[in-house]
Amino acid sequence: MNGVMNGVVKKKKDLVVQGCFVHSVGNVSMLVQEEMVMGIQDGRIVFFDNKDKLNALLKSFEMNKENFISLERNQFIVPGFIDSHAHAPQYTFMGSGGDLPLLPWLQKYTFPAETRIDTDKTFSRDVYEKCVRAFIGKVNMDINSPENYIETREESVKATHRFLEDILSRKNPLLTPCITPRFAVSCSNELMVDLAKIAKEKSLPIQTHISENRDEVKMIASMFPEAKNYTDVYDRAGLLNDTTILAHGVYLTDEELQVIAQRGSGISHCPNSNFSLKSGILDVRKVWEAGVKIGLGTDFAGGHSPTMLDAIRRGVTAANVLYFSQQPDHQATVDPITYKDIFKLATLGSAQVLGISDVVGNFEVGKQFDALLIDPDVKHSSLDVFSTDTREDIIQKFLFLGDDRNILKVFVNGSQVV
Questions:
Q1: Which CA distances in Å does 361 have to 8, 59, 75, 264, 368?
Q2: pTM as predicted
Q3: Which of 27, 84, 233, 304 is the most buried (most CB within 10 A)?
Q4: What CA–CA distance (Å, rounded) separates 12 from 280?
Q5: CA–CA distance from 159 to each of 62, 121, 241, 351 (Å)?
Q6: Residue 324 — pLDDT band, cuts 50, 70, 90?
Q7: How far is CA 169 from the centre of its chain?
Q8: How many whole angstroms separate alpha carbon 403 and alpha carbon 36?
Q9: How far apart (Å, rounded) are the C-alpha atoms in residues 84 and 205?
Q10: How far is CA 22 from the centre of its chain?
Q11: Bridge-based pairing state of the strands 407-412 and 415-416
């Protein structure tokens, strides 16, 4: 988006970047492209080609080297990581309160924290200044909730309309309101139907939880005996479409995955939270093979880290644990998914789940330049690079050992923000 100063549109500077780029393309989970050059105009990638074509490209796009970045030997650029599921109000107790499974945890920690957010504006402002999400929703709950943190169906619908009017009035292209029934445990069927209608009328994405742990799945079966399964509850209410984001999905059956694929909905894989709340392990390969979109999420404070690097690491661990648990004799015929696959979930996969893969997620021409410039050689870093390391070694070291000290620059829509 162009900046505006004193009523005059301020055009972004052109940017040219030369070096190594790492991203996901199609079925390739991690494509490493060395000695490339990229041109960015008005925040979008206009060319991406071999560096020996630089002069011709600059001439063709009427660009120059006024704003030129040439990466050093071990540096590389990756797409900005995309967290497809997190809870801003829970940021207050992240890193604590991990002693219970999901349903008791909600009662003891989550609902009290969210109630205070809802009633204490000073506290709320403090939280949201430290934790910002580009996709944000007003949580809806009209059943099975604490007396001091529950709405009637009518109150929930009215509050949702007020929330949407406020967010949409800001006209910020980087801020998207979502329809957010917490999950079917705390939403009546009537409310879910109302919310589905609002989402359809206003063409808004939907986010909710599904099949996070076994007790939750059992509770849904008893609450909705007319439904075939958990997925069917949402499907009957009209909540499943190609903009729906379903968090967790640990215990989805093959039949449920087939329906989710048919509706075009996506799953946010949250391995840290699944471990921390003792929920279970999602079989990512099974989701992939069912043709369901899947991305990666931190799900703090169910998970105890807000960083996507942690989500990547936990995702690899989850895949390995699942591999061994399914093949106790270690004679598996199918290899576990790798760090490259999880990298894809953190970038292009999450973009697909959020419905923004036409805008961000990798470095295809026409997309916004959302990116991280990684420097493995910064002083006092938690990783070291040696002369024997290949490029793939260095990338892997960053994903498993790196932290914010290795992120030299952050670009959003072509503008350097860090």
A1: 31, 28, 20, 18, 9
A2: 0.94
A3: 84
A4: 46
A5: 50, 17, 23, 28
A6: confident
A7: 25
A8: 25
A9: 12
A10: 18
A11: antiparallel
